[in-house]
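Message: Study each token:
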Amino acid sequence: MILPDTVLSDLREAWRAALTDRLLGVYLHGSLVAGDFDVYRSDLDLLAVLAADPDDNLLDVLTGLHADLDRRHPRWAGRIEVEYVSLDAVRAVPGRNHVIARISPGEALHLLPATTHRVVTWAAVHDHSRTLLGPPAGELLPAVEPGLVRAALLDHVRDWPTWVLEMTPPGAQSYAVLTLCRAFQRLRHGRQLSKRQAAEQTIPAFPRWADLIAWARDWWYDSGHDTDPGRFDDVRAFVHEVSAAILAHERDTHPGLTEG
């Protein structure tokens, strides 16, 4: 198995050759930084900061770059998540009138608006990331106001009961459970945890869902397959209950932030 640092080294050299003066910095975040990275399962999460918003011409360049990387490292194909964002978009939080480019597992490289949803990632990179190119993230990126990060997380929580309706494969169901556990922990304690850490620390808060949370954790970290039986009804009920509990708690402790 090619180790992630080898893939990251190849990607770094490809960026240097293709983007030259357009690239200001590249930062690794997610499980490889936070802990609990699984070389056979986990994704590589990266933020690339650009001198200007990406456009269709840059998208063509990046599409070729990622396709070449997939050919050279087929075991990592579909497991590299990169968000390309301009420094101006981050500074304009939320990035109104800006676009980003994004490639993620199950999703081809594409352009999308730089909405407030993105500030959760930008804040995580600013606070806790590993620099691959450029200055440290804390020197290049502005800090994101904590209230804005909290509001963006609550937007995610509010949307999960709709998103979960499309989560039919067990992998997507596991992701839904673990991601909501991470949101719960960050909103309650202000820490960005790995999926495993969030699952284990959320079980005591929702003991009736202990078995489901453990199932999601074990599926994710023990190489579950999408041919395995899913638990859609349980996952949907969990998402509805936990989302409602989070929003109710926020209404009591942070009035105004739960308004959508």
Remarks:
- The first helix runs from residue 4 to 19.
- The radius of gyration is 18 Å.
- Residues 4-144 form a domain with the Beta Polymerase; domain 2 fold (CATH 3.30.460).
- The mean pLDDT is 91.
